[in-house]
Amino acid sequence: MQPENQWNSEDSRTTLLREEGESMKRKIRSVWAGFVEFALRDNVLEVAVGLIIATAFTGVVNSLVTDVILPPISLLPFMSRNLEEKFLVLRKGPHYLKPHGYNTRQQAVDDGAVVLTYGVFIDQFVNFIGIGLVLYTIANVYGYFSRDSIIRHTVKCTYCRKEISSKAKRCPMCTSWLDGREDVETSALPLSRPGQA
């Protein structure tokens, strides 16, 4: 026979373990519900879809610039190779051949030469300009068809000099009215006229 206080001790341990288990389940459910609420919000999904489309769009524009626009540029008389292979040797490597030099950037780098790869910079710059022009065109087409431009035109507030929307009637920074109300006398007392005491 077991003593009565040992039974009470085992019951209290079982009860304590059950309460701890229930508390842990509630915490896990709460964390899961918070995660689901965060991850499946409308704006999070919109941002995710937007990023995926932007990544695909960037790939298309990069291909347009690199594979379609730059090859004809490399055919110009002053270009002797692809634009991204244009480089200038600043310090020669140990295996530099005087009459020919290096044929590619990779040859120069493998030989330990210090090279200025200005062709890659021009390639990236043309890429940037191409992406910017395409995005600007898309924004204008969207604005034309939707009557709501995504390009926000701004002006400087005449009072606080912060950039604000050109459609604003009141500055959100300094709360000044932009229609001239701030320049009008707002005293409750009547204005004194010249000649009146």
From TrEMBL:
A GO cellular component entry from the record: membrane
InterPro entries named in the record: MSC/AndL (IPR037673), MscL_channel (IPR036019)
Cellular compartment(s): Membrane
Keyword terms of this UniProt record: Membrane, Transmembrane, Transmembrane helix
Transmembrane annotation, as ranges: 47-70, 125-145
Lineage top rank: taxon: Eukaryota
Single annotated GO MF: zinc ion binding
A Pfam family matched in the record: MscL
Membrane topology: Multi-pass membrane protein
Protein name per its UniProtKB record: Large-conductance mechanosensitive channel
Native organism taxonomy: Eukaryota, Fungi, Dikarya, Basidiomycota, Agaricomycotina
